[in-house]
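Protein kinase domain-containing protein, pasting as requested.
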Amino acid sequence: MECVYIFEDSFIDENFDAQPELDKNPEDREKQRKIIAAPSVRRAKSSIDNETKQLQEARKKRRNTVFIKSNLGMDLIKKVDLEEVYDVFKQLGTGRFGYVQLAEHKQSKLKIALKFFPRPQIKQADFVREYNYSYFLSPHPNIIDTYEGMYQTHDESAFFFVQEFCPSASLREAVERSPGGLTEDVTRVIFTKVLSAMEFMHSENLVHRNLKAENILIFDIERYTRVKITDFGLTRKVDSTVKYLEYVNCYHAPELCETVVNEVLTVNKSLDIWSLGIIFYYCLKGKFPWQKASIMCKPYWEWEQWLKRKSPQLPKRWDPFSEKSLKLLKRCLNPKAKDRWTVKEMRKIITKERLLKEAKVKPSVSKAKHTFSFDDHFVYLDEENTVKNYGTIPKITKKKSALGNWINNTWATMSEISEQVVSAQD
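Structure tokens follow.
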């Protein structure tokens, strides 16, 4: 059996801060040092004065780590009696390969998440692979922190490893709490952090392959300063080949929707870019653009027809997006995988451009008269008609002209049309 890939020495830049943002608080930092994943300590206990040195050593260790082979002996997967080490509470989530439960480490009193992989439903190689990717990526501040150590329950019914616990919510829950979608500012804050994590993964030639709102965790639902991605069960190296075993969902690119079960496909970064485009739309609209990226699904077919310029009219559901946002969506949700953008190109628009069109205020006739300015519009009123309708008014000193009369008539016509439109809308 082949081993999991070995990563190059270019893991993290020397200036990269390996410590999660939670550790900025001295109390939280102390808890993190005390956390014990089963019988072994993740990081050596040290004083706060030696924090920098410890972080540098941790970075160096992970940069030079050779991934544990998937055909390892059982001696590296330690048996743990859950009742002795943890107080296990409610279940947090489930997936095709396992489930996650909330627990408290008895010695440190720190709440953590235990990710279980029931046996014999999962192969040992798959468990080791997910642990390797999770632990390798976890120093990034926008990726869930995974504690060192692989374990199995005392009765050998399941493998598990330990991760930090998110006390707040997933992005899916956050959007569902906000009918109509999140605000532009909140979306920008969240996406900036998600793109940071994905740019890091792609720089290491890794593809997540399971990006969705449920796998983006928000640790502070009020300010959105701590956002992390999770679940690396489907993560693979770029250009590796895998058998397609997943069910189709609304995050999947069209090339996946056309793939049948057990068909071999090649992994590439464009799969993640498509998912990011779907999540971007979902955040701002509060719903998905379609259920399946297939021409059998009408909303997707309309989008594809517009992209191919076979339909001149942009589908109405895309109207709220700004010109720059629409450009991003066109390049992320492109049926041709080779033409999709990179994470870096997405980040330029997310951080610098307006994402939604400015809200339009429906004009009313009375408001138009109240805010009307002669100087602003350079309109010359017809004095005779004005006096007839409104009585004596101060004489307007500006001269009448043919151009002024034409503008006046045009303005009246436009006002009449506007009034009819408003009336029809009402």
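Note for the archive: The chain has 15 helices and 15 strands.
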